[in-house]
Amino acid sequence: MSRRFSASCSRRQAVKPAFTVPCHRAGMIHESRLQPIRHPGWGRRIFSARTVQRGGVLRRAVRDVEREIGRDALVAEVRARSFHLIECGGQFIIICNPGHIRLIC
């Protein structure tokens, strides 16, 4: 049984986003970036987690980091602790161990 929709239901109104998010797909990076809100407590909470103390791995969305503290602040925090930072697929991966890294593949 097929459903019939009225003409008003089939139309969709275009909604403009409140802000522009950088697009990292297919090697395209747009110049517009979110301005960080600068929540220093957010950065402290990340690095006070049990995972960090045990030398584990953290993962945070690039979009969230850029919105909350900014990319440069995260890089500075990771460098100050001699940890390692990887960006892949819209995620930051923080390896909370100052040891050497060997990338296998």
Folded structure, characterized:
The protein is of the alpha+beta class and 105 residues long. It has one domain. 31% of the residues lie in helices and 14% in strands. It is built from five helices and three strands, in the order αααβααββ. A three-stranded antiparallel sheet has the order 1-3-2. The longest helix is centred in the C-terminal third of the chain and has 10 residues. The radius of gyration is 20 Å and the shape is globular. About 27% of the residues have low confidence.
Average predicted local confidence, pLDDT: 76
**How many discrete structural domains?**
1
Order of helices and strands: HHHEHHEE
The order of strands across the largest sheet is 1-3-2
Alpha-beta content class: alpha+beta
SS strand fraction = 5-15%
Q: What separation lies between the terminal Cα atoms? A: 52 Å
The counted number of beta strands is 3
Low-confidence stretches: 5-32
Radius of gyration: 20 Å
Describe the global form.
Answer: globular
